[in-house]
Amino acid sequence: MSAAVAVGTTMGTASADHQDFTMFPGQTFTLGEFNGIECAGQLTSNARTPHDRPGTALVTTAWVAYFSTPCSVVAQVNWHNLDTNERGTVSSRVTTTGRGPLPPPITAGNQIAVDTKPGRVVLSVTTESLHFVAGPSVEVRVPA
Prior knowledge:
By secondary structure, this protein is mainly β. It has one helix spanning 3-8; strands at 21-23, 28-30, 41-48, 56-65, 72-81, 87-95, 110-115, 119-127, 131-133, 138-142. It has a single domain, classed as Immunoglobulins (Immunoglobulin-like, Sandwich).
């Protein structure tokens, strides 16, 4: 296959000013469901802003519970579109299953679709339970 043919079959376009994947620096520590120590753990999050989902940020959260008890936590993605000044919160329940103390139970991750409209968007992850956010919010560019 020639180089011209290979280039001609490339799907989509990329933009030099658009980063598709952003890892949240730090974790969200939480007591989890019912604010009990038996459900204590941490959420690790990342955001994707793919070109094939215009106006939407996809936030994935993975929860590691420190103990072996099956637990849930409601993750909240707080967003603020700096270009439109719109803001909101989207929630999703994240659940672990008890599998013994080593390794700790972990979810594969929940993907939360956040309809922010295109523009510069600030995202943060908190929970409905008592929590401490150990990292700053992230700013992403959501494509049109």
